[in-house]
From TrEMBL, chain A:
Residue ranges occupied by any DUF2157 domain in the UniProt entry: 11-151
Keyword field: Membrane, Transmembrane, Transmembrane helix
Protein name: DUF2157 domain-containing protein
Domain of life: Bacteria
Organism: Thalassotalea marina
Residues that span the membrane, as ranges: 45-66, 97-121, 127-144, 151-170, 182-201, 213-233, 239-258, 265-282, 294-314
Keyword Transmembrane helix assigned: yes
Automatic annotation (TrEMBL), chain B:
Keyword Transmembrane helix among record annotations: yes
Record keywords, A-Z: Membrane, Transmembrane, Transmembrane helix
InterPro entries for the chain: DUF4401
Annotated ranges, domain DUF4401: 30-340
Transmembrane feature ranges: 36-56, 62-81, 88-109, 115-136, 143-172, 184-210, 231-250, 256-282, 294-312, 318-339
Pfam name, any one: DUF4401
Name assigned to this protein: DUF4401 domain-containing protein
Organism: Thalassotalea marina
Length: 325, 349
């Protein structure tokens, strides 16, 4: 029995329901659950409280005794947990939330096992190698599971790999470029490629059509290219000029794909924010230092102006979507 | 107007609870648009504040001037917030109000001893909750007021008193949210503010000590015993269950009615040293009772964060904490088995 709570709240705030009818309206909107729903809810809550308390109790117990435990017992614990979760995944029927949860837990336990290995044997490997190998090992599971949450973990691991890699190797493309390769270039290239591939395959695969993952990839690529454009504002050399051009191309592409071809408010809002960020940084550079306090009010004027313009435009686009619906 | 909105209107009309055509509602912006406008609004307000404080640096050092300067800022914020719905200017107004609060906080801190300035600031927040016509502002002011009262009691060694104290008005307000229709915005601000306060204070209780805060100038002559906070927790839990049972479709003479109180008593005893678990469950139950997804989410978040933070609590060893959690787990499993055994229900997803 679905609840219409939000709709009831909107009507109450409009003042169209008289006070003596509020209780009846609440009943019609199914705000209060019935006896069966309460029983099912209490059943579920008790199960989750029991499972979480039990898991935490076990973790706390092992944490208390961790320093006294030998290395083989530590490995055995993690490996046993990994095998158990994998077996639960194999035994659970398809399209079940428990199945997804256990496989996600298995993927996390792979990382825990690798970290334990690195900590125990002090192999001297760079941190980026841990994350890269972790992503590599869970790739077959991600392909088989066809689940967005596990792919999210995979993308996050590779983004962390790129950032940590650039920490150690400042100029991985020294053959092609004389200058230092910026971390943002790598994350922009990787996330843009991931977004494009995901967008392509999502046309034929229903499980890939969850918008939140595509938006996350778009956000990561957008943040990277915006960062590169801001760097170009401060120092305009050949590489940074290329970044600026790519930023403009990204904005134009985004407008074409998400305003003309189909409408996606999230992408448009992200584009607006990117423009505001780069423009304000550019204005700040033109104005010079903040010894002249009037610079603050000029910047405030531009920020407020751009903000109002964005709000009006996005509202207009939203009304158009509503009319089409 | 959405289809579900139209359906509800038709149902209300059929029961003669409303008349005429359904009101046309302005579509609210999605969360990411609001977030983007909030960021830009705050950035703009920040530059305005930097201009004001850079233009009059010597005035800002004077507490009296700070206090006087805060009044027009509060009025400006109030004026903007009373205007029709505008996501962008809403956040500009919030930033201006927060700047004004910062000035008042500075002025009070310079003038008064620690205990009085916290209580006075909490009173100011209470006034702002009543006057400022904005949900976000009310939530923030409720949260800050709770934190101020908690910081005041923290040095007395019993900040957990505040979280249990907050649960009582939270339960009453949540279960009576539609009773005062014209005050719904105020009540919902208080409900979410109190929920967030409980969440933050439970976490702060684990990590923050009075020495770490370092804001106190004077020594407290008296203190609150930990058993006072535990007693308040017991009262809060039984009050919450009693009020929830009034909205659950269960007969008072039903055996389950008495059983629920017995289970509450045992669970409360088990969780006396892990009060975040009990209070998180209360928030979860309240959210379910009112079909309020935000409150359900806050309840789940409170439970997850508290379980993580409980690891770092220094009052007991990990072994004792493990035993407490194991006892709670076993008790929950037993309760669930009893529920399924004596009252099997249809298992619909």
């Amino acid at each position: 029995m679905a609840s219409s709570r939000q709709q009831l709240v909107e009507l109450l705030q409009q003042g169209v329901i008289s006070p003596e009818h509020v209780a009846d309206a609440e009943q019609l909107a199914n705000v209060a659950p019935n006896k069966e729903q309460w029983q099912q809810f209490v059943n579920t809550v008790l199960l989750w409280i029991a499972c979480i308390s039990l898991s935490c109790a076990i973790v706390f117990f092992f944490a208390y005794n961790w320093s006294q435990m030998g290395r083989f017992l530590k490995f055995a614990l993690v490996e046993f947990s990994l095998i158990s979760t994998t077996l639960i995944y194999l035994k659970t029927p398809a399209n079940n939330l428990v199945r997804v949860a256990t496989l996600t837990l298995s993927c996390l336990l792979v990382g825990a096992l690798m970290a334990l290995f690195g900590q125990t044997y002090q192999t001297g490997a760079d941190p980026w190698q841990l994350f890269f190998n972790w992503a590599l090992i869970i790739t077959p599971w991600a392909l088989v599971a066809r689940n967005s949450i596990i792919w999210l973990l995979w993308f996050v691991l590779l983004n962390i790999t790129l950032v940590l890699y650039c920490d150690v190797h400042r100029n991985p493309f020294f053959i092609m470029f004389n200058t230092k390769v910026n971390t943002l270039w790598l994350t922009f290239a990787f996330n843009l490629a991931s977004f494009s591939v995901w967008q392509f395959f999502s046309a034929s695969q229903s499980w890939m059509q969850k918008s939140w993952l595509m938006r996350m990839l778009a956000t990561l690529a957008g943040v990277s290219i915006t960062g590169l454009a801001i760097e170009a504002v401060y120092k305009l050399d050949v590489i940074n000029l290329l970044a600026l051009v790519l930023w403009l191309i990204s904005l134009v592409s985004m407008y074409y794909c998400y305003r003309i071809k189909k409408v996606d408010l999230f992408m448009l809002a992200g584009g607006c924010l990117s423009i505001i960020a780069v423009f304000i940084v550019w204005m700040e550079k033109q104005l010079g230092s903040f010894d002249n306090i009037l610079n603050y009010i000029i910047l405030a004027f531009f920020v407020l102006g751009l903000g109002i313009a964005s709000a009006v435009w996005l509202k207009k686009v939203q009304r158009e979507i509503k009319h089409e619906c | 107007m959405s289809a579900s909105h139209h359906t509800l209107w038709q149902q209300l009309k059929a029961q003669h609870l409303v008349q005429g055509e359904a009101p046309i509602l302005e579509a609210t912006s999605p969360w990411f648009v609001k977030s983007m406008l909030a960021f830009v609004g705050w950035l703009g307000a920040l530059f305005i504040m930097l201009f004001v404080f850079s233009a009059f640096p010597s005035l800002i050092d004077n507490p009296k001037i700070c206090f006087i300067l805060s009044v027009p800022l509060f009025l400006l914020s109030y004026f903007i917030l009373t205007k029709p719905n505008n996501d962008f200017f809403e956040h500009v107004a919030l930033a201006i109000s927060f700047a004004a609060q910062g000035l008042v906080l500075f002025a009070l801190y310079e003038w008064l001893s620690n205990s009085t300035f916290l209580i006075l600031f909490a009173i100011l927040q209470g006034v702002l909750v009543l006057l400022m016509p904005n949900l976000l502002h009310r939530i923030f002011s409720t949260l800050v007021a709770s934190l101020c009262v908690s910081f005041y009691l923290l040095d007395l060694g019993a900040s957990q008193v505040v979280t249990s104290m907050l649960a009582i008005p939270l339960v009453w307000l949540c279960l009576n949210e539609f009773r005062y229709q014209s005050k719904y915005s105020l009540i919902s601000g208080l409900v979410y503010g109190l929920s967030l306060s409980i969440l933050f204070l439970q976490l702060a209780d684990v990590f923050v000590s009075s020495q770490a805060l370092g804001i106190y100038k004077d020594v407290r002559p008296w203190s609150i015993s930990p058993w006072d906070s535990r007693l308040l927790y017991v009262i809060a839990m039984f009050y919450s269950v009693w009020k929830l049972l009034q909205v659950v479709p269960l007969n008072q003479h039903d055996k389950w009615f008495r059983l629920v109180f017995a289970v509450t008593g045992i669970f409360t005893l088990l969780s006396l040293n892990a009060q975040g678990i009990g209070l998180g469950i209360v928030m979860l139950m309240l959210g379910f009772a009112r079909s309020n997804r935000i409150l359900i989410t806050l309840g789940i978040l409170a439970l997850m964060l508290y379980c993580s933070a409980y690891y770092y609590q220094m009052q007991e060893t990990l072994l004792v904490k493990s035993a407490i959690l194991m006892a709670i787990a076993i008790f929950a499993f037993i309760c669930r088995w009893l529920l399924n055994h004596f009252a099997p229900a249809s298992r619909e997803r």
